[in-house]
Design brief:
The chain is mainly alpha-helical. The chain has 15 helices and four strands. Helix 3 (51-65) packs antiparallel against helix 5 (78-110) and helix 8 runs antiparallel to helix 10 (180-221).
């Protein structure tokens, strides 16, 4: 199992952040064997498929640029003009092949690890010129694997070549019985297909190298338990910092909640342990909503703000606890508490009318109908 410099075992799978950081540094899995196999096979395939195009182009090139007229013989600039035109025609003829090979080279390079451009890799580093680090890479496990792959390719391609030559020995000897044109044609066909067959052996090397590169890449990015914990702290923050953030969030939420208290229609109290501020606008609300709630010190602050803004405070211990435990902020009260809250609001509106118009002092309800399942002692 891999270990880091501190001797700790790298037994943890790389996290998403670790993988993302590795991509930024240019550390992505790549397979040279896949790239070599794709370029060789597809390059030969393109050559065979474009053989008529090359034959026609070469015929035109030789007939037009390597045939000199009598006039050309007396023109000192004719040879250079023919040479330049021959180069232009040759490049134009080979342009489709070069374009196809460029596409194959790029796609085969990014097929395994995906397309990735890293500015970190482009930065000049003197450490890359360190001969000691270079020797360490040569004699590392990865260097040993590259050596074994090179030997395996040599044995595989060499063995396939010997087997192919042995199987084609009769046909090669038969070429001597043909005329020059037929022999050249048959020879070119055998060379083309022999090249494809020999290049196909690279498929086996690619099938071996791709899983190895994926395994090696994952192994290099594995983490120790301490690295995972450090990354978690870095990502989510230290416990004391997170605690402070949560405290500030609670304080901010309480401040916003207290700003809603002056707009409440009534504050239901326990009378000291709980306080719930309710607001009801029959034109826009289907039922009263809780704009503030709290217990202990928060309840005391709600009562204090309510008294400062002339919001009625009504003692209803059982109803206060029922609303506190069964309703969240900015939510409507449960349907089971509609009747009890309706009686409460009716009393509040009567009290408001008494203050504005005078008359008999309204009497608060002696008991509010709170269902058994909503009661909290």
């Amino acid at each position: 199992m891999a270990e880091n410099q501190d001797g700790q075992e790298k037994s943890q799978e790389p996290t998403a952040k670790r993988l993302a950081d590795a991509r930024k540094k240019g550390q992505v899995p790549r397979s040279r064997e896949l790239n070599t196999m794709a370029i060789t096979l597809l390059g030969l395939g393109a050559l065979i498929a474009m053989a008529p195009h090359f034959t026609s182009g070469m015929h035109t090139l030789f007939t037009e640029q390597f045939s000199l007229t009598r006039r050309d013989m007396f023109d000192t600039n004719a040879m250079m003009a023919h040479l330049i035109k021959a180069i232009e025609d040759a490049l134009f003829m080979l342009l489709p092949f070069f374009g196809a090979m460029m596409v194959v080279a790029v796609l085969s390079s990014v097929a395994l690890g995906g397309f990735n451009i890293s500015s970190e890799v482009m930065k000049p580093k003197l450490s890359k010129l360190d001969p000691i680090k270079g020797m360490k890479k040569v004699f590392s496990a990865k260097g040993l694997m590259e050596l074994l792959k090179s030997l395996a390719k040599f044995l595989l391609v060499g063995g396939a070549t010997i087997a192919l030559l042995y199987s084609l020995s009769d046909r090669l000897l038969h070429l001597g019985d043909l005329n020059a044109q037929q022999a050249i044609k048959q020879g070119m066909i055998m060379i083309a297909w022999s090249s494809v067959i020999l290049s196909s052996t690279l498929i086996l090397m690619a099938l071996i190298d791709i899983p190895f590169q994926l395994w090696q890449h994952k192994r290099e990015l594995k983490m120790t338990q301490q690295e995972v914990r450090d990354e978690l702290k870095e990502t989510e923050g230290k416990p004391e910092v997170k605690g402070r953030i949560r405290q500030m969030q609670r304080e901010l939420a309480q401040r916003r909640m207290m700003e809603e208290v002056p707009r409440a229609d009534v504050i239901v109290t326990n009378p000291t342990h709980y306080a719930i501020a309710l607001r009801y606008d029959p034109e826009v609300m289907k039922a009263p909503i809780v704009v503030a709630k709290g217990k202990a010190l928060v309840a005391a602050n709600i009562r204090k703000v309510g008294e400062a803004n002339d919001v009625p405070l009504v003692e209803a211990p059982m109803l206060a606890r029922a609303i506190y435990f069964n309703t969240e902020l900015q939510q409507q009260i449960p349907a089971a508490l509609f009747l009890a809250v309706a009686q409460l609001l009716a009393y509040v509106f009567q009290l408001r009318a008494y203050k504005d118009e005078g008359g008999d002092i309204p009497t608060p309800p002696q008991e509010y109908p709170v269902p058994e399942e909503y009661r909290h002692d």
